[in-house]
Amino acid sequence: MKIDNEIDFSNTSFYKLIDVGNFEKLEKFGNYYLIRPEPQAIWQRKKSNEEWKNLAHAHYIRNEQKTSYRNSESNANGGWKFYKKTPENWIISIIEKNYKLNVKIALTSFGHIGIFPEQLTNWNFIFNTIKSLNIENPTVLNSFAYTGVASVVAKIAGANVTHLDAVKPIVLWAKENMENSKQTDIRWIVEDATKYFKREEKRGKKYNGIILDPPAYGRGPTGEKWILEDDINELLHTASKILMPNNAFLILNLYSLGFSPYIASNLIDSHFKYTKKEFGELILKSETEFNLPLGNFARITR
Ligand SMILES: C[S@@+](CC[C@H](N)C(=O)[O-])C[C@H]1O[C@@H](n2cnc3c(N)ncnc32)[C@H](O)[C@@H]1O
User: Can you tell me the distance from the alpha carbon of 28 to that of 13, in angstroms, rounded to the nearest whole number?
Assistant: First the structure.
C-alpha cells in the first residue's frame, strides 16, 4: 500500500522545521536553530532572510550548491558560520509515546549533524513491529546505520541489535547515543555492508529485522565502493537469505534525489515475500506549510 508519511512535529520538542526555500532549510534541534542546504528547495521561502538570520545560531554554507549533502562522496566543501554562541555539541531527547532516547547533535564539517528527523516514522515502525513480534529477544541488523538512532530504538524495544557502518567515528557516536539513552550491549560492526551481509549468509545467520539506509555513493572501511544502482540488488538478494521467513520485518530507505517511491517498492518485490508492505515518501511539514520530501521508504512484515 502506498502511504505518504507527512510528519508533523508540532507535538514534539526535539525538532521543528521552521521554513524551507531558496535551496536552504531553517530547523530547530532542541534549543538551537540551524540553517542548512536543501538542494530540492527550489521554491521561495515564506519568512524573510532577515527573520532566518535573526533566529539562526549557525549556518552551514556550501561552496557548491545543489548537490546532495547526504551523499558521502559529494564534495562537502563548506563550513559553519556562527550568528550566536553555539556549543560544539548538545543532546536532544526524543520522547515518543512508548520510548525515550537521547541523541547527540554535533556540527560536522560535512554539514551533517547526527540525526535525520524524517526517520521518525521508521523509528516508530521499528519499535511497534518489534513489540508485536511473537518471540523473545528478536535479532535486528541495522546497516548503513549512521549514529544509531534506529539501533537504540530497536534495543529499547527489546531486540538484540547489530549495528553496522563503515565509519569508525560514526559508530563511536552511535555508542554514545546508546549510553546516553541508558542502554547497553548493542553489537558494533565497522565493515562494508555487502561483505558483512555475505559473511552472515555463509555463517547461516538469520535476523528478525533488517534495516537498510544506503547512500547513493559510499565507501567501505577499506575503500570498497558502494554505488546504489549497481550494488543494491546484490545486497537485497543477500538480505533475503538472512531474513527470517516469518516473524520478520525489513525497511529500505532510499535518499537518492529524483527516485520515485515505486522504486523502493519494486526493489522489495524483486527479492522478498511478505504479508504486508507499505511504501511512500518521508515528508517533513514546515511551520510555514511547505511539505519537504526527504526520500522514500518501503517496509515489509511477514
Ligand atoms: C545516509 S547515512 C544513514 C542515515 C541513518 N541511518 C539515519 O537515518 O539516521 C549512510 C551511512 O552509510 C554508511 N556507509 C556508506 N558506505 C557504506 C558501506 N559500503 N558499508 C557500510 N556502511 C556504509 C555511512 O558511513 C553513513 O553512516
Answer: 9
pTM of the model: 0.94
Fold that domain 7-92 belongs to in CATH:
Immunoglobulin-like (2.60.40)
Which numeric CATH code is attached to 116-301?
3.40.50.150
Q: pLDDT digit string (tens) for 239-265?
A: 999 999 999 999 999 987 678 999 999
Distance 282 CA to ligand 1 centre (A): 18
Nearest CA to ligand 1 atom 6: 145
| pLDDT tens digits along 72-127 | 444 557 899 999 999 999 999 999 989 999 999 999 988 999 999 999 999 999 99
What is the whole-number distance in angstroms between the Cα of residue 232 and the centre of ligand 1? 13
Helices 193-202 and 228-242 meet at what angle, rounded to 10? 20
CB 281 within 8 A of CB 121: no
Task: Locate the domains of the chain by residue range.
Answer: 7-92, 116-301
The residue whose CA has the least distance to atom 2 of ligand 1 is 146
Query: Do the bridges between strand 24-29 and strand 15-21 make them parallel or antiparallel, or are there none, so unpaired?
Result: antiparallel
Nearest CA to ligand 1 atom 19: 220
